[in-house]
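Saturday, quiet lab. Running sequence design on the structure tokens for the scaffold JK sent over.
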């Protein structure tokens, strides 16, 4: 079996209503769909994350990576990953758009191989005895504080026991004091037995994060996510030593080496790989060994990615050692048209858990009409 073709389709869909959070307003969802087909007619699909200009990763797939993997044996997926990285690593491109482009090809290869084996991807990766995964509801975004509290309470009424809340209010709207008021109002609304996670998307500096974190300690917070920008490793280490709230990060890291530094420098409690950015299934799975060895929680990120990434992360969640919880985007603030690009609806949680689709590979089939509807070339 040889790889015969790699095709790439950038998608875009306006958000039904723009999402407001700490790093600005999010008006448009993007994703890049990759399809890998073999000479015997098998195919698999993957996704590259695209936050801006999806044409950039599409060009990297078309011009740089597709020529490398075409003609090769898809069963060599791990070696192909290393070769793709090796193309430009010594030229300074071991992070960023190149690794995001690699993600789409790598996910497509794993989907293809699991289909060839006739197994759901999570079993093909080495099952963990889970066919349902616990999930948290993400995210209660900025709004009037009483409305945020009401949304959190409504999600608990739907069966969720874990709720993630946006913090990092801009200074003009109350800044970190508004964050403290928000979290207190939400804890009051949901009661003491609900897990609350907070996500700042890097809005603070370390000093502010410590000041806010210490005020929130008494509210029994499960994790504080990205309190400072991802490259401020000293900041993470300082916050982690100073505040009794576990720290979560990793959605913007590339490869296992991105997480290596976070772990080695004592920055992190919860690992949040984004499969469409880290480089695909291969490095997300290699990260399991680090999670296991350091006894750290593994909680895959999904966020504003498209449906293939959400689905691939669901399979990683089902198979991962040290799995903690899966990010299900389901509040009334986030309606992502690019998650619904399959011939059947994306799996919906029941009582705070999601059942894995049981078909081979990723388990759902792309709907060609949906792909055409959102294609931007
Ligand atoms: Mg986040």
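Result came back. Writing it out in full:
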């Amino acid at each position: 079996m040889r790889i015969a073709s790699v095709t790439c389709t950038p998608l875009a869909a306006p958000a039904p209503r723009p999402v407001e959070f700490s790093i600005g307003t999010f008006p448009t969802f993007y994703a890049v769909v990759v399809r890998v087909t073999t000479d015997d007619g098998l195919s698999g699909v993957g996704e590259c994350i695209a936050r801006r200009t999806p044409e950039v990763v599409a060009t990297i797939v078309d011009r740089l990576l597709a020529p490398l993997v075409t003609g090769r044996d898809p069963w060599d997926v791990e070696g192909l990953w290393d070769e793709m990285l090796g193309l430009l690593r010594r030229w300074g491109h071991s992070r960023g758009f190149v690794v995001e482009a690699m993600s789409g090809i790598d996910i497509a290869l794993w989907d293809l191989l699991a289909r060839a084996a006739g197994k759901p991807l999570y079993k093909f990766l080495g099952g963990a005895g889970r066919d349902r995964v616990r999930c948290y509801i993400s995210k209660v975004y900025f709004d009037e504080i009483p409305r945020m509290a009401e949304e959190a309470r409504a999600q608990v009424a739907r069966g969720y026991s874990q709720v993630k809340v946006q913090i990092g209010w801009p200074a003009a709207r109350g800044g970190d004091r508004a964050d403290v008021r928000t979290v207190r109002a939400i804890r009051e609304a949901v009661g003491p037995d609900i897990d609350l996670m907070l996500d700042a998307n890097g809005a603070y500096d370390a000093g502010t994060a410590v000041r806010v974190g210490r005020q929130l300690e008494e509210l029994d917070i499960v994790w504080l996510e990205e309190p400072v920008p991802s490259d401020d490793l000293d900041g993470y280490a300082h916050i982690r030593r100073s505040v009794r709230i576990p720290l979560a990060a990793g959605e913007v890291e590339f490869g296992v080496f991105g997480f290596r530094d976070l772990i080695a420098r004592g920055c992190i409690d919860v690992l949040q790989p984004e499969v469409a950015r880290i480089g695909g299934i291969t490095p997300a799975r290699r990260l399991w060994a680090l999670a296991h060895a350091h006894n750290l929680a593994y909680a895959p990120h999904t966020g504003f990615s498209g449906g293939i990434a959400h689905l691939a992360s669901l399979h990683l969640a089902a198979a991962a050692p040290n799995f903690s919880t899966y990010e299900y985007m389901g509040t009334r603030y986030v309606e992502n048209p690019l998650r619904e690009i399959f011939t059947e609806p994306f799996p919906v949680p029941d009582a705070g858990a999601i059942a894995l689709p049981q078909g081979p590979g990723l388990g759902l089939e792309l709907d060609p009409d949906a792909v055409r509807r959102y294609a931007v070339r």
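Notes for JK: DSSP finds 13 helices and twelve strands in the chain. The pocket of magnesium ion is lined by residues 199, 201, 225-226, 251 (CB under 6 Å). Ask whether to fix the surface positions before the next round.
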